[in-house]
């Protein structure tokens, strides 16, 4: 990261009522004297000034705007920030950015650079920065809720608490490495072992969230499966409330997997229509069946749709051998069934629908929302939202599982150091000096 002052449009480029242009860095404040008539030295932080924004070369007015100044370190990036709130026309935005590009030691910000500077200046850790990114990308209310929790530091506090415990253990072990003639007192050994045991249990429990956090970011995957002409494409159209798939009585019409993305009671859900599963020698349809089988393996839930007029749930017997726990049986074409057939299906607690007339589709969506909701536990307020978190936590747990005070103390200390380092990778804090602080703060070394 260089020391240049950066600037960027923080709102969407295009026609709008207001555009926000942010400037951050050591020379951000110089914009005030070079592009306005305000006195740079007398401007007050966090006050809004309504001013004429001037072209630096021609001294003509570019726009009338609001200007705000945020003094370091009390700003988003920890640097001086000037924010210009201009009218949102393309011409105004282009003029302001062109003027800023001519100022010495100014440059356009790279993607995410404001947040990166905030991280480097200690305004946020990596989990908070990624929580902010998730909030910006959030499309549903549940995504929004969990992104805000992460942005507020819930995950950071948890991982830093664990890491702090490991740093304390490292301080003890480093001290006894320095004094090899001293035996570790029994109460210290007990304290270390208890701490490691509790950490292993806590990390294990945290890792048992079954990828719910990652699913919440990317979307829960629901795949419609069934034989040809069961009504899968009609069901997808009914769920989407528009024609997204060709519906035909000709078997094998659907050749590829087709996705729609939905907000199901606050949860992001991707529903996929797949080719009908059957034995076929037709090359393209055969490839479609192979894609369907792969989608089935990757799915969180399977809507097992069958033609209740001609078939039974037994058509899914092969799939049930491996994926029974994520299958939802759906009987289609209820409009063609007798009252006796309808009662028999309902007695089996199978969802009954008519994809053609959209009857019962709301029941499916409610069922999907209920199942996803049940995936969340009382510990779900702290979700692992990224694969890199899970990998680092798994490595930390492996190191703790290797730890034993029966080994040489240097090896024991290395296990703890590796575990602490893996946790530090998540938050972005990988430091060794603080271990010395713990040593000198907790022990009378050299006394």
Notes on the protein architecture:
This protein has 447 residues and is an alpha/beta fold. It has 3 domains: 5-118, Probable tRNA modification gtpase trme, domain 1 (Gyrase A, domain 2); 141-209 and 388-442, tRNA modification GTPase MnmE domain 2 (Four Helix Bundle (Hemerythrin (Met), subunit A)), CATH 1.20.120; 216-375, P-loop containing nucleotide triphosphate hydrolases (Rossmann fold), CATH 3.40.50. The protein has helices at residues 30-35, 90-101, 113-120, 126-137, 141-151, 154-178, 186-207, 212-218, 232-240, 283-298, 317-323, 339-347, 361-375, 387-402, 409-427, 433-442; strands spanning 5-9, 16-24, 48-54, 61-70, 81-88, 106-108, 220-225, 258-264, 267-273, 301-307, 327-332, 351-352. A hairpin with a 2-residue loop joins strand 8 and strand 9. The longest helix is centred in the middle third of the chain and has 25 residues, at 154-178. It is flat and about 85 Å long.
């Amino acid at each position: 990261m260089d020391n240049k002052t950066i600037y960027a449009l923080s709102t969407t480029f295009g026609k709008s009522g207001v555009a926000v242009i942010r400037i951050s860095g050591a020379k951000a404040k110089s914009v005030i004297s070079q592009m306005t008539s305000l006195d740079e030295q007398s401007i007050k932080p966090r006050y809004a000034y309504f001013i004429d924004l001037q072209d630096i070369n021609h001294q003509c007015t570019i726009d009338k705007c609001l200007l705000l100044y945020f003094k370091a370190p009390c700003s988003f990036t920890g640097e001086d920030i000037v924010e210009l709130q201009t009218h949102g026309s393309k011409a105004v935005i282009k003029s302001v950015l062109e003027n800023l590009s001519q100022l010495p030691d100014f440059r356009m910000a790279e993607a995410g650079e404001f947040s990166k500077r905030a991280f480097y200046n200690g305004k946020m850790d990596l989990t908070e920065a990624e929580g902010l990114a998730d909030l910006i990308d959030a499309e549903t209310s549940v995504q929004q809720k969990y992104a805000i929790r992460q942005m507020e530091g819930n995950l950071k506090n948890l991982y830093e608490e664990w890491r702090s415990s490991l740093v304390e253990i490292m301080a003890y072990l480093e001290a006894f490495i320095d004094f090899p003639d001293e035996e570790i007192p029994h109460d210290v050994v007990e304290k270390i072992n208890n701490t490691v045991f509790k950490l292993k249990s806590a990390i294990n429990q945290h890792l048992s969230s079954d990828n719910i956090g990652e699913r919440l970011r990317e979307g829960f995957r629901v795949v419609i499966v069934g034989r040809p002409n069961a009504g899968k494409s009609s069901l997808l159209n009914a769920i989407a409330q528009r024609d997204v798939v060709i519906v035909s009585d000709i078997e094998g019409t659907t050749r590829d997997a087709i996705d729609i993305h939905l907000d199901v009671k606050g949860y992001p859900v991707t529903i996929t229509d797949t080719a009908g599963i059957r034995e076929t020698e037709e090359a393209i349809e055969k490839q479609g069946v192979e894609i369907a089988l792969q989608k089935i393996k990757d799915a969180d839930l399977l809507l097992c749709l069958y033609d209740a007029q001609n078939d039974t749930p037994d058509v899914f017997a092969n799939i049930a051998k491996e994926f029974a726990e994520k299958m939802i049986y759906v009987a289609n074409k209820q409009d063609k069934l007798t009252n006796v057939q309808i009662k028999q299906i309902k007695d089996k607690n199978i969802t009954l629908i008519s994809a053609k007339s959209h009857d019962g589709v709301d029941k499916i969506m409610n069922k999907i929302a209920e199942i996803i909701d049940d995936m969340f536990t009382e510990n779900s307020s702290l979700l692992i939202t990224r694969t890199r978190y899970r990998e680092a936590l798994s490595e930390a747990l492996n190191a703790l599982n290797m730890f034993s005070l029966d080994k040489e103390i240097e090896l024991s200390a290395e296990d703890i150091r590796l575990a602490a380092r893996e946790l530090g990778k998540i938050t972005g804090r990988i430091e060794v000096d603080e271990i010395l602080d713990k040593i000198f703060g907790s022990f009378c070394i050299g006394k």
